[in-house]
Design goal:
Elements lengths: L1 E2 L2 E4 L8 E3 L5 E3 L2 E4 L6 E5 L7 E3 L2 E3 L8 E5 L6 E3 L2 E4 L6 E3 L7 E4 L1 E5 L7 E3 L6 E3 L3 E4 L11 E2 L3 E3 L3 E4 L7 E2 L9
Parallel strand pairs: 1-4, 2-5, 3-6, 4-7, 5-8, 6-9, 7-10, 8-11, 9-12, 10-13, 11-14, 12-15, 13-16, 14-17, 15-18, 16-19, 17-20
Antiparallel strand pairs: 20-21
Length: 184
Amino acid sequence: ILENILFLSGIDATTGMLEVSSSDWLIRDCEFRDSVGQATDCVTVLDGSDRLVIDNCRFFMAAGAGANSAIAVVSSDDIEIKNCYIYGNFAVGAIDFRTTASARVNIHDCKIWTANAADVAIVDTITGSTGWIGPNLQAMLTDNAANITEAFAGATFQFVDPIYICNLAGEKAMLTNITASTDA
């Protein structure tokens, strides 16, 4: 259990303020700050870090370009990310599933603000990760463009409303337009 810890990084291109490399972790009520440089990834979750829970954590990445993700996950099953606030200039996605698929992930009750034109909040770059994205997710994007559908990208995830996305300051967020299931 890691609880109530402030993590600070001032090292440009660091690949993880925290690296999780074993199963059954609870990271709760922690804050992660990239104070000077642009950490490439803030929390790196390595292969086999099953049943990880990240609860009520805050991520403040540098506003400048350089970050890929706040949370990068590789082949870790049954993880849960909940009640988190994430801000940064994420070139890949605030939460990135990469390299090898993860199964039965559960991400809910979070606010994600990305300051990068890529406008991606959660992404499965490996394609094949499974689990639930939502409910109660809110995302703020940086560009006023046709990017609502791309903000949450994962062909093999299940999306659970409400997932709200806003792509311009001063506007009301809209419910995601990801394709809904039908009774076919």
